[in-house]
Specification:
The protein has 14 helices and 16 strands. The protein is an alpha+beta fold and about 600 residues long. It is found in: Cell membrane. Pfam families: HAMP, HATPase_c, HisKA.
């Protein structure tokens, strides 16, 4: 049997009521409330929480104070009733003298009712009378009974009010008269001189709670006024504190809006890092800096890629156009007299253009391999001095009239801020330098540099070639990430000063080629390492070259964790500096041997035997 896989259809009644569309599912009430709460601004939520907490706190404190004071006054009243019992017992015979005929007293504040042994009322008693003829009595058990009353335990009972005059009493007097009473029932007995009990019974002693209630009400009103003032002041101060605390977040929000609009230069104002908002600001600024750098790097890479594609297309189009043109010319002139001589000339032009295109394609492939980290082996032992000497010999063979001077690279100390330290040429023999790298690629670097000197400088202008090894307090990884400009070269020279003084860091081989040709403008020196860059805007390349030699040299040097840059020579001309890591600096010994520490009385060390 097959299973029924049909989906249940929508309710036809709901579909008809909604014009053919199914009724939308209702959202639960708690989700609707949650969405409304989430839509409330954070500042409003915080101020509301402050007000609610202050209100609950003041109500709780006021209730606690009222309960504590009420219990204290009630306990004090009970103590007062018990303490007054003996005095009342002693003056029971004189109660009649302080009361009127009906037992009402204008001076006594205690209610006293005496009952005999059968709990029947006797004549003795005292009933306080208020002003304007208002009499308030506690509600006690009926005559002849004390049901519900425990002797010796105070209890609270309602008041029974009587008005003895026809005048309407004041509201305050009636309110005080209607206040409940606190009453205690105590046994009493009267003995004869011989010690026999003459009479006994129960006496009810009561005291109105009007004063206690009035005190509690006054205290409650005072707590309410203070509580309202505290809530209002707390709300005002809370609003100010919340607004000032959230002000940095508002600025962050505005900054984020500007950044979203495309202005990546915006930054969040700095705040103390020990606060949450300050830590957030620092993290956001760091993130924005990296995003801006990445964005500019992406823009620069995209622009370089566009320029590279345009230049590569142009460079490839030129020899292809020559090949196509001379092929068309040969086809047009092959039936004319002297076609064989003209064909040889066309073939020579075609061969030259194809050779140039082959070199260009090989350089492009070489750059692509270097960009991918392929096509280079930096694990070989390279005698750098031999590579540089061979390049100098090649330059001399190309330009026999050019004066080539070899020497060493030294650090010339600066005199002041306007004349800082710099690398200088010192005539002499180049030192023997051996390092780990790719011999063929390093030979390609110096060959490209020599080729540029041969192509772009006069054949009789002198050239200085120098080498040297200097320590610098900078890692090869940091050195390879530095841009190829003169500012980076100055930074490297500062690292050399620190490395020489502290004997720390890495030893670097420095190779310099200084010519005295027309030179390159200062703002264009860092661009000579760009692909297809040329100072000739016509792109005629009358002096040959593909425009990729220095780009290849930079890629090779960076693959060796080195640095290359172009700077101005003394006077006119251009200096190309190549820096390659050799080996870490050996630390300076901290202690001397025991023999070196021994000196004679004249300050001389003893001679070794």
């Amino acid at each position: 049997m097959s299973q029924d896989t049909r989906q249940p259809s929508a309710d036809p009644q709901n579909t008809q009521k909604n014009g053919g569309q199914p009724r939308p599912q209702r959202v639960p009430w708690h989700r609707r409330i949650g969405r409304k709460v989430q839509a409330i601004p954070l500042s409003t939520k915080l101020v509301t929480c402050i007000i609610v907490l202050l209100t609950i706190g003041t109500i709780g404190i006021s209730f606690s104070i009222r309960t504590l004071v009420g219990n204290y006054l009630l306990q004090k009243t009970d103590t007062q009733l018990v303490n007054q019992a003996q005095m009342i017992f002693n003056s029971m015979d004189s109660l009649d003298s302080t009361t009127s005929e009906d037992g009402r007293s204008l001076v006594n504040t205690y209610y006293v009712e005496v009952r005999d042994s059968e709990y029947k009322r006797t004549g003795a008693g005292s009933v306080p009378m208020l002003r304007e003829g208002v009499v308030s009595e506690p509600s006690l058990p009926s005559d002849g009974s004390i049901d519900g009353v425990t002797l010796g335990e105070p209890f609270t009972t309602q008041a029974v009010v009587h008005v003895t005059t026809s005048r309407v009493p004041d509201h305050a007097i009636m309110q005080a008269a209607q206040s409940p009473w606190r009453v205690v029932a105590l046994p009493w007995s009267e003995k004869t001189k011989t010690g026999q009990v003459k009479d006994s019974g129960v006496v009810f002693i009561g005291l109105s709670l009007s004063d206690q209630i009035d005190t509690s009400n006054t205290l409650t009103r005072f707590c309410a006024m203070v509580g309202i003032a505290v809530v209002l002041i707390g709300a005002i101060l809370g609003t100010i504190v919340v607004q000032s605390t959230l002000a940095p977040l508002k600025r962050i929000e505005k900054t984020a809006a500007k950044i979203a609009a495309g202005d990546l230069s915006q930054r969040v104002p700095d705040l103390p890092e020990n606060t949450e908002v300050g830590s957030l600001s620092m993290s956001l600024n760091t993130m924005l800096t990296r995003i801006e750098e990445s964005f500019h790097a992406q823009e620069e890479t995209t622009e370089k890629m566009k320029r590279f594609v345009s230049d590569a297309s142009h460079e490839l189009r030129t020899p292809l156009a020559a090949i196509h043109g001379y092929a068309e010319l040969y086809k047009m002139q092959r039936d004319m007299p002297g076609a064989l001589e003209r064909a040889d000339e066309s073939i020579e032009h075609i061969e030259a253009s194809s050779a140039r295109m082959t070199v260009l394609v090989e350089d492009l492939l070489s750059l692509a391999r270097l960009d991918e980290g392929r096509g280079i082996d930096i694990t070989q032992q390279v005698k750098l001095t031999s590579v540089v000497n061979d390049a100098a010999d090649d330059l001399h063979a190309l330009d026999p009239d050019r004066g080539i001077t070899c020497g060493q690279v030294v650090l010339q100390a600066g005199s002041d801020m306007e004349h800082p330290s710099r690398l200088a040429f010192q005539p002499g023999t180049m030192p023997d330098i051996t390092l780990t790298g790719d011999a063929s690629r390093l030979r390609q670097v110096v060959t490209n540099i020599v080729g540029n000197i041969h192509r772009y400088t006069p054949a009789d202008s002198p050239v200085e070639v120098s080498m040297g090894v200097l320590p610098a307090s900078i890692s090869p990884e940091s050195l390879s990430r530095m841009p190829s400009n003169e500012q980076s070269l100055h930074h490297f020279i500062e690292a050399i000063e620190v490395g020489q003084s502290m004997q720390v860091g890495m030893n670097y081989a420095i190779v310099r080629f200084s010519d005295h040709g027309p030179g390159v403008p200062a703002d264009a020196r860092s661009k000579i390492f760009e692909r297809f860059y040329t100072a000739d805007p016509s792109r005629a390349r009358q002096k040959g070259g593909t425009g990729l030699g220095m780009a290849i040299a930079q890629s090779v040097v960076k693959a060796h964790h080195g640095f290359i840059c172009a700077s101005g020579s003394d006077g006119t001309g251009l200096t190309l500096t190549v820096v390659l890591p050799v080996a870490p600096v050996e630390p300076r010994p901290l202690t001397q041997t025991s023999d070196e520490r021994k000196v004679d009385k004249r300050g001389r060390r003893p001679k070794k035997q």
